[in-house]
What does this fold into?
Amino acid sequence: MGLTGCVTQPIQQKSALELQAIQVKEFSTNHKVAFTSVLSVFQDLGYVVNSASLETGLITAKSPTIQEFVPFVGQRMTDEKANAFVEQIGTNRTKIRLSFVKSQQTSSGYGMRGERDTPIQDPGAYQDAFTKIQQSIFVRSNTN
It folds into this structure.
């Protein structure tokens, strides 16, 4: 007699080079326009900005937390973290690197706690954000 059940297949982790290919994009604009465009897009996507430094080019943000009760598990809280690094690479060239991470915490009535952060590796999520950033850069560059 054999045992069968549902087994979640582990997510195939991308190499650093593969991740960089989907997380990095260059734009023809200056550092300030790129930075404010990323900041604006994060807010448009529903993230709450935790920190932003034009000087360093770093932006950290978090989505609202979704809390739910899961039978036999307890409470589960899920949110998404977004980080951006905006870097001037030429006179009018800027490189932006984004990273999105799904964060999940669980807690039971017995004091058990668990936490898991999973990097989002779906190229579509990054492409969508970069498309919105490109649109924001276009608007900012053509309205000043």
The first strand starts at residue 24 and ends at 27. The chain has one domain: 19-142. The radius of gyration is 19 Å. The chain is about 30% helix and 40% strand.
